[in-house]
Amino acid sequence: MSHWATPYIGQPWSKHGQGPEAWNCWSFFRHVQATHFGVETPMVPYADDLLVLARLFRDHGERSRWQPVTSYREGDGVMMRTARYPIHVGVWLEVDGGRVLHCAAGAGVVCQSLRDLAANGWRIDGVYRHRGTAS
User: Could you give the 3-state DSSP secondary structure of residue 118?
Assistant: First the structure.
């Protein structure tokens, strides 16, 4: 038996991606949340400037609909950063002790352990659960 996320692995990244031919991190996150968890999220425009992108993630009204969690479960949103501010998002999977499914430039859709994320320069900035799915 395979996990629902398996068919996504290897799909390509594109900064303007809307899937299924290509995704960016947010369009992929939106698709997974809607398709597999029934959570609708608004579009966040892609920005080439990392500071602008960080501000979009930080200031977007959607953040108020997600609460930080310390005990992760399948479908939680994982905010990641490579420097000071979060600029990337993925989905927590309860597979092999925990993995993050995300779509990254140069790699496409990948499913990585916390160790693999760190080896690729990603640090988890926080894990969040949509308030409509919180228990």
Answer: helix
